[in-house]
């Protein structure tokens, strides 16, 4: 969780038994007064300032006499580009994940029309415009708020549309894991949409627009809501924390890494993947429930041994700061490993998994309490990789064999989706698949 399984994106402003453990083993256990329409007119007149990891951030000057949007509302990510937005975009404060199944009788033609509608709506909303005819005005007074909308295809989509020959081998179903307690009704799906924004109303507005656009072509299969710390909530940018209070995402791959491209993006020319997946990525989505009552019974020192990092600052137990390289061989005065052999941060390290790595970009979730007051809360784990069989799968298999954290989490839903590259100007997402 702190290093690999319970993740976060690189450019974020932000990440069981109780018996005595053996030596060297962790104990298990609103923006101002400029409207969205005025923002659009201003952006068209002044242009956009491009930059920031994972996308283009646009800042529109307010007309004379108008109150400018706050920095939170004015953040803009571009819809068109080499890659889809929402993958290396900095983590947002609010998120929605939703899967759809094509309606009975709907096929390739209906899917193409749907992706065309969805892409147009996403482009409009990400620019701060109304969704189109019948806009609900939910986010009328807000700026784009770094909204992103990302689209993917599930394994079942290809049979439904007669495109089985275009289905990537990497989209084969994930293997079973011993820690899985999966609800099939909340797993997989023909189509997947990820929505993220730094304002809750902007995110909901996009969710509602996407759902309305589906019309008679597709029906919601499952939907999940998530959140992260808001940008600017801390004195300085720092790695996010998850609901266990742990700094989460310290060793996430960064676009500046020399091997980032090959780990995260499908190459433009490759023998394994179909041409329509060029510049895309594969996403694994897992709803991971945290058993917070059990976790919170542990002392801070016990929690740190489960993770392998200090809770206060995310530094490895072997010493240093958050980004200090972990010393896996360091021992204490009694000869016990300082970072326990089954510590989560040790097990998930790429150098402990044949180099396997994935870009983690999660949202936390809380869906209320049960009759006994137990919270239904945890992580909407979202990880990106060029090949899930070389990214997610080997790491999860190793976690299955002895991660100290596994006593405190439960995998309740799962999905794997092929997310194609970004749409060029005048294109819609998936056009090269559906019209190729």
TrEMBL record:
Keywords: Heme, Iron, Lyase, Metal-binding, Oxidoreductase, Peroxidase, Signal. One of its GO terms (molecular function) is heme binding. Residues 1-33 are annotated as: Disordered. GO terms for cellular component: cell envelope; cytosol. Residues 239-423 form the Dyp-type peroxidase C-terminal domain. It is found in: Cell envelope. The keyword Heme applies. It catalyses: heme b + 2 H(+) = protoporphyrin IX + Fe(2+). Its main location: other. It holds the Pfam family Dyp_perox_C. InterPro entries: Dimeric_a/b-barrel (IPR011008), Dyp_perox_C (IPR048328), Dyp_perox_N (IPR048327), Dyp_peroxidase (IPR006314), EfeB/EfeN (IPR006313), TAT_signal (IPR006311). Its EC number is 1.11.1.-. Residues 20-29 have a biased composition (Low complexity). The keyword Transport does not apply. PANTHER family: DEFERROCHELATASE, DEFERROCHELATASE/PEROXIDASE. Belongs to the DyP-type peroxidase family. Involved in the recovery of exogenous heme iron. Extracts iron from heme while preserving the protoporphyrin ring intact. This is Deferrochelatase. It comes from Streptomyces fumanus.
């Amino acid at each position: 969780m702190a290093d690999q399984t319970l993740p976060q994106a690189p450019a974020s402003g932000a990440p069981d038994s109780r018996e005595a453990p053996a030596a060297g083993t962790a104990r298990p256990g609103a923006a101002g007064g400029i409207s969205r329409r005025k923002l659009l007119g201003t952006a068209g007149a002044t242009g956009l300032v491009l930059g920031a990891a994972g996308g283009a951030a646009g800042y529109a000057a307010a007309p004379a006499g108008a109150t400018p949007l706050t920095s939170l509302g004015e953040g803009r990510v571009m819809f068109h580009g080499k890659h889809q937005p929402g993958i290396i975009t900095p983590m947002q404060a609010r998120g929605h994940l939703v899967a759809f199944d094509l309606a009975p009788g709907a096929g390739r033609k209906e899917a193409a029309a749907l992706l065309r509608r969805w892409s147009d709506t996403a482009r409009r909303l990400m620019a701060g415009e109304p969704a189109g005819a019948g806009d609900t005005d939910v986010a009328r007074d807000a700026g784009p708020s770094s909204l992103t909308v990302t689209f993917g295809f599930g394994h079942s989509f290809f049979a439904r549309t007669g495109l089985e020959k275009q289905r990537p081998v990497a989209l084969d179903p994930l293997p079973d894991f011993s820690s899985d307690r999966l609800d099939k009704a909340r797993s997989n799906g023909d189509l997947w949409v990820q929505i993220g924004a730094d304002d809750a109303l902007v995110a909901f507005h996009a969710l509602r627009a996407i759902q309305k656009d589906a019309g008679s072509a597709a029906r919601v299969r499952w939907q999940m809501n998530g959140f992260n710390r808001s940008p600017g909530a801390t004195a300085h940018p720092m790695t996010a924390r998850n609901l266990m209070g742990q700094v989460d995402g310290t060793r996430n791959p960064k676009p500046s890494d020399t091997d980032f491209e090959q780990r995260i993006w499908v190459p433009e020319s490759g023998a394994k993947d179909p041409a329509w997946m060029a510049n895309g990525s594969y996403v694994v989505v897992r709803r991971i429930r945290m058993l917070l009552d059990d976790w919170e019974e542990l002392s801070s020192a016990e929690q740190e041994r489960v993770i392998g990092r200090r809770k206060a600052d995310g530094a490895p137990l072997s010493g240093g700061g958050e980004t200090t390289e972990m010393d896996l061989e360091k021992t204490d005065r009694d000869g016990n490993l300082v970072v326990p052999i089954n510590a989560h941060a040790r097990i998930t390290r790429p150098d402990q998994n044949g180099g396997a790595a994935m870009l983690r970009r999660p949202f936390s979730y809380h869906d209320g309490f049960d009759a006994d007051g137990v919270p239904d809360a945890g992580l909407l784990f979202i990880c990106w990789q060029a090949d899930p069989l070389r990214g997610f799968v080997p790491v999860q298999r190793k976690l299955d064999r002895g991660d100290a954290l596994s006593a405190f989490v439960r995998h309740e839903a799962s999905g794997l989706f092929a997310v194609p590259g970004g749409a060029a100007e005048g294109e819609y997402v998936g056009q090269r698949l559906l019209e190729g």
